[in-house]
Specification:
With about 100 residues, the chain is of the alpha/beta class. It has one domain: Glycogen Phosphorylase B (Rossmann fold), CATH 3.40.50. The chain is built from 4 helices and 3 strands; from the N terminus they run αβαβαβα. It is globular. The two termini are about 20 Å apart.
């Protein structure tokens, strides 16, 4: 939401929230408190979390998450590929979470 002041952002109500966290398992685990705070702040929001497929089961049954999904095989790292290689696939997968 470009152009919003910090005050406006604090008082804004969001209906849909998408968390994207693809890094290491420890990073996903340490992000769970953020998920809990988001649920308390936005109790009626639909919260989805896009993670690596290997981590999807970890958050799939969390009561604050509506959908926990991975990007699929297309976002896997290949040796020598540019770091943005999986971006289009990740964006496409995120768009399917409705």
């Amino acid at each position: 939401m470009p152009g919003l002041s910090s005050t406006a952002l604090r008082t804004a109500e969001f209906r849909r929230i998408l968390l994207i966290k693809f890094s290491a398992l420890g990073d996903v685990v340490h992000s769970i408190p953020v998920l809990n705070k988001l649920r308390r702040r936005y109790p009626s929001a639909e919260i989805d979390w896009l993670v690596r497929p290997a981590f999807a089961e970890l958050i799939a049954h969390h009561p604050a998450v509506r959908v926990g999904a991975g990007p699929g095989r297309c976002a896997s790292k290949r040796r020598g590929s540019p770091p943005w290689r999986g971006c289009s696939c990740i964006c496409a997968r995120a768009a399917t979470i409705s």
